[in-house]
Every structure is written in structure tokens, then in C-alpha cells.
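subagent[fold] <- orchestrator: predict structure for attached chain, return C-alpha cells only, no commentary.
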Amino acid sequence: MSHVKNVAIVGATGTVGSYIVDELLKAGKHQVTAITRHDSTAVSPDGVQVAKVDYADHNSLVAAMRGQDVLVITMSVQAPKEAQLKLIDAAADAGVPWVLPSEWGLDQTNLPLVDEAFMGPPSRAVRKHIEERGVSGWIGVVCGFWYDFSLGGSPSRYSRAGRCAAAGLADGGGSEGESGGKKGSLADFRNSFVYISSFCVSQRDMLESALRVTGTKLEDWKVSHEGSAERYAKGLQMMKEGNRVGFVQAMYTRTFFPNDDGVYKESRGLDNELLGLPVEDLDEFTRLAVTRKDDKY
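subagent[fold] -> orchestrator:
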């Protein structure tokens, strides 16, 4: 088949999932099913089927997965860790060939980075579980932080993740080692990562973009300087004291360490061109980030 047809997505109306759904619907090649909790009041877009499930009932999850070619999971980092494992077990029992786990962020092959940013162990456990079930292949999407949301390091935009997923699914599933010679099919990324990026920028790059967009000068801003190691240590201390802000501070700061751990563009290369992702303009999306009031965050 030239593309996968049936795509189930968890978190279809969320910050990441909604963009993936938008791009899948635009492609016009897929039947998209939103898997939601039985008590959810979220409204899915027209053209999306809805399967309401009970996470406490394995059979309910399996029924929602039957006939699906791909399960895409987009869940909050605050979601119970067992929820994703339940979805993976249901996908395996339903014979779903592909799973895109909730893996949208840092380069998971860089163990010091992801472990010190607290993302490594839980993500590895999920991927290991998929492989141990022996039914589905997994694909992780490395896209850095969301630029729209955080103006963070080596970032991508929410919509770029959506385009990445839609482009990959449109290029076909096949089976392992059967990509028909067409680089870019799902089989080429089986049990591995796809690397995308909108921009690879420093904090200085982002500040200069903000100056251009807002028409301000550097002297209009209050600028302070703090070493990344010191700021990371402060974040860890805040976490020990029960301050959740410390988690965010430490996670972001770790990617800005001067060893360039967060710059995967140079070390791993990008799949942007392979997936047909367009070149994007930094200032355009800085403008959206600083002016948008009614958004999806």
C-alpha cells in the first residue's frame, strides 16, 4: 500500500495531537480515530471518528485498536505512566503494526542529556515494552522543544511535528525491510528515530528575533546572565524542595549546556528534506509566539 489508512491517536485535541490530526486530515489519505476516555467532553474535528474507552478495561482498549494501522500517542508528561503501557498492550493484542509513542522532544540517543533532563528512563521503558511485546514497531520523533510554546533550545514548532507524522504515514507502512527502495517509508525508521527541526538557535538568536519582531532595542530589556551549570543546580534544588518550576528550569537549562548536547542537527542530521518539510522563518513564528493570545497551549 502507498500509505497507511487507519490511524488511531490518543490526545487528538491536545497541544501536539491537534496539529497531527489537522495535517492527517489535510492529507486526505487516512481514516483518523480519536481514542478518548469514556467521560471525555472534548470535541474532535469533523471527519474524525471517536472511540471512547475505559483505561481500566483492557478489552475496551483492544476493541478501539482493532483494524488500526498506526497508534499515535500524545500524552502529557503528567499522565500516569501506566496509561501508555496499557495502550501499548492493547495495540499488541489488536495486532497494530506501528506505534508512535509519546516521544516528541529531546534526542533519546544522547543518554547524558535525556537522563539529566529526566526524560530518558521513562521513554526507554516504553520503547523496551513495545519491543518485548514483539508485535508493533515504534518510531520516536526527535524535534527539540516547541518553539511556539517556550522559545526553547533547538526547537521545532507544534505544526512541524504534525507535518512530520502525516508525511511519514503517507509514505507507507509495508513491513520491516520492505520499503520498496523508497527512502522515507515507515519501515526505514522501524524501532528508531526521525529527526526534524524548524530552527537551531541560541538564546541570543531568539532575543534578536524578538527585538526585530517587537521593534524594541536591547536597552529596553532587562538582561541578566547566569551560567547553565549554576542554573541547572538551582533547578534541582527547587525540585528537592517540592517546587515544580524547578523541573522545567533544570530540563530547559540542561539543553543549553556549552557541550552542544542539544544541537542534534550537527551530530545526527535532519530528515526534514526526506519528509518534504518546508523551510520556516524564525521571525514569523516569533511574531506568532509573542502576539498570539488565543492559542492551543
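orchestrator: received. Logging for downstream: The longest strand covers residues 31-37. Residues 75 and 153 are 21 Å apart (CA to CA).
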